[in-house]
Amino acid sequence: MFTRKIQKTALAMLISGAMAGTAYAAPEVLADFHGEMGSCDSCHVSDKGGVSDDNLSHENAQCVSCHGDLKELAAAAPKDKVSPHKSHLIGEIACTSCHKGHEKSVTYCDACHSFGFDMPYGGKWERKFVPVDADKAAQDKAIAAGVKETTDVVVIGSGGAGLAAAVSARDAGAKVILLEKEPVPGGNTKLAAGGMNAAETKAQTKLGIEDKKQIMIDDTMKGGRNINDPELVKVLANNSSDSIDWLTSMGADMTDVGRMGGASVNRSHRPTGGAGVGAHVAQVLWDNAVKRGTDIRLNSRVVRILEDTKGNVTGVLVKGEYTGYYIIKADAVVIAAGGFAKNNDRVAKYDPKLKGFKATNHPGATGDGLDVALQAGAATRDLEFIQAHPTYSPAGGVMITEAVRGNGAIVVNREGNRFMNEITTRDKASAAILQQKGESAYLVFDDSIRKSLKAIEGYVHLNIVKEGKTVEELAKQIDVPAAELAKTITAYNGFVKSGKDAQFERPNLPRELAVAPFYALEIAPAVHHTMGGVVIDTKAEVKSEKTGKPIQGLYAAGEVTGGVHGANRLGGNAVSDIVTYGRIAGAEAAKFAKDH
Questions:
Q1: Contacts of 475 (CB under 8 A, 6+ apart)
Q2: For 36-164, where are the E strands, in sequence order?
Q3: Which of 360, 365, 438 minimizes the C-alpha distance to 400?
Q4: Cα–Cα nearest to 193, from 280, 251, 285
Q5: Do 217 and 237 touch, CB atoms closer than 8 A?
Q6: How buried is residue 451: exposed, middle or buried, by Cβ count under 10 Å (0-12/13-18/19+)?
Q7: How far is CA 502 from CA 268, 484, 491, 492, in A?
Q8: What is the DSSP letter of 167?
């Protein structure tokens, strides 16, 4: 086995030799290069006769032993360039997520971003949607082959809801296998930046913020146009402060409190300084799931929920990317696979106005969880309600957190004018932006807002923020009339001083835009959240389409469910939803497994 030093030297020789036109042949894939260095067992466990598992645990350990881990690679990256090794991704990110062995490597980052990373031996990353029942004959054959292994609870999805369910179920004494179809964990949670809504919390009390759970209920019902399930909303709000305490007890920092659209009170909790909440919460949950001995498997797609003749859940059929089809027998299954915002064909089916829209979601949000739930006979609701997030960056391929507006930023059009209440609900904000010239707008803020919210540094790092030493210089950068932009900012600052927005009745006016330099981001709506999904009760039990009663042993949490958010989700309620209902689903699934 080569040492890391020898490996790095060999790699450098190969690359420099290829550039110099020497006898070194440029490999098509990494296996070609590694073949120059030794046999297959340089990467694989030779006595296994193939890959170690669907996580490629041994293979990734070999990569790290030679080339270093993500932190080492990120530290060595040029400071003036976006580093794909320094990111918001959670967990122990596998080298093989991007660096493939026997096929062209891909840049997984480009599934969302568009930075054109120069990947050695690389091809284009793409996610082709394949229906869960596309290979039915092979699936039936695998089912006929019988059970491969047994556990108490299977959790589908490694986002916040799935990880919360796994931790909760483990704490209740259940043996848990968590299955994730993507090569990286975290789901949409790792992308969430704004905050986690909760009422009557210790952090609010410490900051002198008066809030009531009933106000959170009222705000959520109003934002959802009152078609939400009132009982699910009550559980969301009444358990929200306990969910904050639960996260805090596991090491989360939720001490900063701001406000997001549709909220009457500051209740959006996030880490100190306004850092992004999603990656932090997901990492805390991941660490605690690992600490509790959860069996977490990536590259593992659930294609069928198995049931007995009475309709009771008996397990799942899994398609391992490398190991193929196999059955896991389980007493209970938690579906936490997220929504379908990244599947535009399905989005357009339910809301034709969104055909062709970009999406803020991670690439795995294609609706697999909904599909396997439907196969199992689950009832659904509210599928036609799909939310567009108003502040997506076309340049960076990232969602700009609502917290930027919550901390005082304004939105202007190409004429340099404000045209809406910046913290209205997402549906209204998106509609207003689409009415503007170019169907996009600019988020404008100053240095005081930048310093108030750490999440902004991520956008600066991605080189998508325009900067001007003066308002006039910024106007030139974004090609809007300087006089109009200056007039707009002066008027807005006057509203802040008076404490009343006489133009659009914006309820919170936290600060003037007066501290140079000034900044702007181009924004446009993109599909963000699918409010509809499977029908659940307050115990997170999935209800049957035929009987209206719970399907025995089947639970769901997070974006795969419907009823919590109604027709429109309020910013900050998604993280609260995944943590609260993830906890409930995990605990109830563990209890069911124990009783059966």
A1: 416, 468, 481, 482, 485, 486
A2: 149-156
A3: 360
A4: 280
A5: yes
A6: middle
A7: 26, 18, 10, 9
A8: H
CA distance 520 to 467: 7
Give every residue of the chain whose pLDDT is below 50, as ranges: 1-25
Terminal C-alpha separation, the chain: 49
- Please spell the DSSP secondary structure of 533-578, one letter per residue: EEEB-TT-EEEBTTTSSEEEEEEE-GGGEESSSTTSPPTTHHHHHH
CA 562 to mean position of chain CA atoms: 18
> According to the model, what pLDDT value does residue 6 have?
40
Nearest to 174 by CA among 150, 147, 151, 148: 151
Q: Is 0.85 topped by the overall pTM?
A: yes
Whether omega before 517 lies within 30 degrees of 0, making that bond cis, reads yes
H or E element, residue 66: helix 57-67
Q: Are 108 and 184 in contact (CB under 8 A)?
A: yes
- 232: Cβ contacts below 8 Å, ≥ 6 apart: 536, 538, 563, 564
Q: Rounded CA gap, 29 and 121, in Å?
A: 5
> What pLDDT is stored for residue 48 in this prediction?
61
d(CA 445, CA 178): 42
- The DSSP result for 27-64, as a single string, is PSSHHHHHHHHS-GGGTSBGGGTB-S-TT-HHHHHHHH
In total, the chain counts a number of residues equal to 596
The answer to whether 77 touches 85, Cβ cutoff 8 Å, is yes
Distance in angstroms (rounded) separating the CA atoms of residues 125 and 111: 6
256 burial level (CB within 10 Å; 0-12, 13-18, 19+): buried
Nearest partner of 396 among 330, 307, 461, 308, judged by Cα: 461
297 counts as catalytic: no
Give the other-Cβ count within 10 Å of 505's Cβ: 10
What's the rounded Cα separation, in Å, for the pair 563 and 559?
Answer: 10
- For residues 197 and 473, give the distance between their C-alpha atoms in angstroms, rounded to a whole number: 37
Look at phi and psi of residue 50 and say left if phi exceeds 0, alpha if psi is from -120 to 50, else beta.
left
**H helices present in 239-363, as ranges:** 240-249, 277-291, 344-350
Helices 4-20 and 30-37: crossing angle, nearest 10°?
120
Among residues 259, 267, 405, 426, the one annotated as catalytic is 426
pLDDT value, residue 120: 72
Sequence letter at residue 379: A
Secondary structure class of 287 (helix, strand, coil): helix
Rg of the Cα trace of the chain? 25
Read off the DSSP letter of residue 111.
Answer: G
Of 443, 456, 461, the residue nearest 525 (C-alpha): 443
- Nearest-angstrom CA–CA distance, 498 and 575: 34
Q: CA dihedral in degrees (201, 205, 208, 211; nearest 10)?
A: 40
pLDDT given at position 334: 98
| The predicted structure's pLDDT at residue 330 | 98
* Tokens read off for 357: 């829209």
How many angstroms separate the CA atoms of 589 and 154, rounded?
Answer: 9
pLDDT reported for residue 326? 97
H/E segment holding residue 496 = helix 482-498
- Taking the C-alpha atoms of residue 334 and residue 156, their distance in angstroms, rounded to an integer, is 6
